From TrEMBL:
InterPro entries: DUF403. This is A predicted alpha-helical domain with a conserved ER motif. Residues 10-164 form the DUF403 domain. It comes from the Bacteria. It comes from Succiniclasticum ruminis DSM 9236.
Length: 222
């Protein structure tokens, strides 16, 4: 495996976490646009589960400002900008063609904000992120680099599933994929966190989910 500076390893890791946070959270919120037509969404519970400030006036304010407000440190627009910022610094590693999909995703966020019907442009954001995943998997020769990004994305996906109580039947499978990818990287996992994840049971209780969440979040220090 080629050696990576601490700075580049950190940026690769957070690139993976940010793109997965953007994609998975948008997918989770997708149905909420339809729900708001006839009812209310439980955005305070969502904020509580993600441990973010519930600073929104109502449903519409949440769906606009949580998704699009670039001055909100918790917003998905802020996540998208951080994703692109890491990608730009890593241009020489991931390649300009792969980086272009991140740029298109951020442009899609801007387009969605200006639209009266944001669901279609937000779907394009998800599509561009999927294209980014396919591009880096195909275009980056260094297996270590590819799997650092994949491990980070896996940690983020696992974290969101556990926080939101979503796709819990996939948790053990996600842990298994994370373990396989981790072994193909230069990442050094926490032994204690690794043991918790390897002995994971079905996360049926809040206590088990909290234990697995803490282990996932502390698996790597980069």
């Amino acid at each position: 495996m080629d050696s990576l500076s601490v700075s580049k390893l950190n940026r690769l890791y957070w690139l993976g976490r940010y793109y997965e946070r953007l994609s998975t959270t948008l997918s989770y919120l997708w149905d909420w646009y339809d729900v708001m037509i006839d009812g209310e969404i439980n955005y305070p519970d969502f904020c509580r589960k993600l441990s973010i400030d519930c600073c929104y006036k109502d449903d519409k304010d949440f769906m606009h400002n949580y998704v699009f407000d670039k001055n909100n440190p918790d917003s998905l627009r802020t996540v998208a900008d951080a994703m692109l910022g890491n990608g730009m610094v890593l241009r020489e590693i991931i390649g300009s063609r792969t980086l272009a999909y991140l740029e298109l995703a951020v442009m899609g966020m801007k387009s969605a904000e200006e639209s009266d019907s944001p669901t279609l442009p937000l779907q394009r954001v998800i599509d561009f992120i999927m294209a980014f995943r396919g591009s880096y998997d195909d275009m980056i020769d260094d297996e270590n680099v590819r799997n650092i990004i994949k491990c980070a994305a896996g940690v983020e996906r696992l974290s969101l599933y556990l926080r939101l109580g979503w796709h819990l039947d996939s948790v053990k499978s996600e842990i298994g994929k994370l373990m396989k990818r981790m072994n193909r990287t230069s990442l050094q996992p926490s032994h204690a966190s690794l043991q918790v994840l390897l002995s994971a049971q079905n996360p049926e209780t809040p206590e088990e989910r909290k234990k697995l969440l803490d282990a996932a979040e502390n698996l790597f220090v980069v």
